[in-house]
Amino acid sequence: MNHLLILTPFQQHFGQVSGIFQSTYLIHPQLIIQFNIVYVTRYRCKCIINTFRQRLLDICNCVQEWNNNVVSKDVVTLYKELKLSIEFEPYLDKLFSINSIICITKLRLCAHNLRIHTGRYEHLDNNVRYCQVCKIHEIEDDFHFVLNFPLYTNLLKHYIKQFYTNRPSMYNLTELLNNQKKSELCMLSKHVTEAVKLRNSIIYWYNHVVLI
What we know:
212 residues; mainly alpha; globular; 2 domains
């Protein structure tokens, strides 16, 4: 049988932060409801506290496992610079076009066919995975592709602010990708989309026209 209880200061505080628990999915919503009702049993209160304690432990283990996996992967070099904690990325809400979201996400995750990644299939060392388009013996990595590609000069001027391009650096690239301004994110997605098309057309022309 349930009994009416006078909430202790601890229980009052727990009730105040229950909304935070629910919004961050630390505790199942049903348990939040059980705690917030006036008729609370001692068993339920103990159950919620134990669940909360266990969920915190699970989250800590999950974060540690995620961090170890990221650190151990050589492929996701840019992702390591961008993703320092497990949290929702604002750009997913800023961009409304699914194509723009996919474009930025693939770039952040290094899910592309730049030479820095495809070169490993040919067992090439990282320092010789040169760009096949510009032919100036620059390693074709994410930084080279987005901010330091000579053939993309016109695209950069049109889509990317000079703040990022005047002195291109890896720091500027991470700042650009972590930008939360909708307009700049949209322009970045357009730049990357156009750059991919240009790159693919040049490689196709080189492989199917020049070599014939």
